[in-house]
Design goal:
There is one protein chain. The chain has 340 residues and is mainly α. 53% of the residues lie in helices and 6% in strands. It has 14 helices and five strands. The radius of gyration is 21 Å and the shape is globular. The N terminus is likely disordered. Bound molecules: tryptophanyl-5'AMP (TYM). The site of tryptophanyl-5'AMP has 25 residues, from β1, α2 and α8.
């Protein structure tokens, strides 16, 4: 693919220091799904118009649960292709791999020193993941301190995420404020940006759970790489509710409301208004599938043009750009903590 990418000088020339900075991350574990896309990634792409975007493949976070050697390496490359194909422009934004910028782990230690054991224990993601795992690593427990370091290392103003990351961003604000009260005005306090629609896309088979990479049934998640036939099948088999009324009511009708939410976000509509067009579940499922196919088609076309080497080159460029920001911020933190 003719993906040209500029020198450092080119990339610096296109970034404007006065824009607010957006930072977010995704774990490179398995294929990106529709929940990731509608809840977060689509906004990353849109925010490029108004912000200086820094987007990170958080491979070290992915190691907090046991993995086979090499698994994360391959998944990181694939996830980078996903991000580029959904519209993250590695020249306009900074797209990079967490482990390529060593300052993340260094700042994470400083964050662990100001985070409370009790506040980490209250993190709902830790509770959920530790209950369902046989081996619970110390890294799974301290995970939010590395996430806080990711965000704080880039003087981030806004963090575009899905609803499940709200608590982690609030934790980041809390510990950054604590750090500043101990060591001076060193860290920028970020805010989350959670979309009104699409912030929590649910599993198609278990609409009481969010769509997730680790779902028990593959029929529950729509992947960015799914074929038209697979998408149609998944929507056709989607679990709906016992009565047949089409109404947007996430609490009492989670299955149908999820389909309406997906259709609404995919078509920039409103789920309650859209519900008025349907008297049966069948046509709603067909329309939701068709809207998702349309939405994913350009992404899939672009993805098929990306090769490994081009992607690696773009990630190397991203790491250079990321270090330009992260290194001085880490120096600021070291100076403030005052070690010999
Ligand atoms: P991760 O990899 O689980 O998900 C990436 C993004 O996708 C959103 N998301 C969803 N949105 C709507 N509906 C869903 N079903 C759904 N599932 C996932 C997530 O909210 C997220 O925005 N801890 C983070 C990664 C991370 C990070 C960061 C994020 C590490 N450092 C710094 C922001 C800033 C995570 O595991 O996301």
């Amino acid at each position: 693919m003719a993906l040209s990418y500029g020198s450092m000088a080119d990339s610096e020339a296109t970034s404007t220091a006065t824009r607010p900075r957006a930072f977010s991350g995704i774990q490179p574990t398995g294929t990106v799904h529709l929940g990731n896309y509608l809840g977060a990634l689509r906004n990353w792409s849109r925010l490029q118009e108004t912000t200086d975007g820094v987007y990170c493949l958080v491979d070290l976070h992915a190691l907090s649960v046991p993995r086979e050697p090499g698994e994360i390496q391959r998944a990181t490359l694939e996830a980078a292709k996903d991000l580029i194909s959904i519209g993250i422009d590695p020249q306009r934004s900074t797209l990079f791999v967490q482990s390529h910028v060593r300052e993340h782990t260094e700042l994470a230690w400083q964050m662990q020193c100001v985070a409370g054991f009790g506040e980490l224990r209250r993190m709902t993601q830790f509770k959920d993941k530790s209950e369902s795992s046989q081996f619970v690593s110390a890294a799974l427990f301290t995970y939010p301190t590395l996430q806080a370091a990711d965000i704080l290392l880039y003087d981030t103003d806004i963090v575009p995420v899905g609803d499940d990351q709200r608590q982690h961003v609030e934790f980041t604000r809390d510990i950054a404020t604590r750090f500043n009260s101990r060591f001076g005005d060193v860290l920028v306090i970020p805010e989350h940006r959670i979309p009104q629609a699409g912030a929590r896309i649910m599993d198609l088979q278990h609409p009481e759970n969010k769509m997730s990479k680790s779902a028990e049934s593959p029929m529950g998640s729509v992947l960015l790489t799914d074929t038209e036939a697979q998408i149609e099948k998944k929507f056709k088999r989607a679990v709906t509710d016992t009565d047949s009324e089409v109404r947007y009511d996430p609490e009492n009708k989670p299955g149908v409301s999820n389909l309406l939410a997906i259709l609404a976000v995919a078509t920039d509509g409103d789920p309650t208004t859209l519900a008025e067009n349907y008297t049966q579940y069948g046509p709603l499922k067909t329309d939701a599938a068709a809207a998702v196919i349309e939405l994913l088609r350009p992404i899939q076309n672009k993805r098929s043009e990306l090769d490994d080497q081009t992607t690696v080159d773009l990630l190397n460029l991203g790491a250079d750009k990321a270090r330009d920001v992260a290194v001085p911020v880490m120096e600021r933190v070291r100076d403030a903590v005052k070690l010999l």
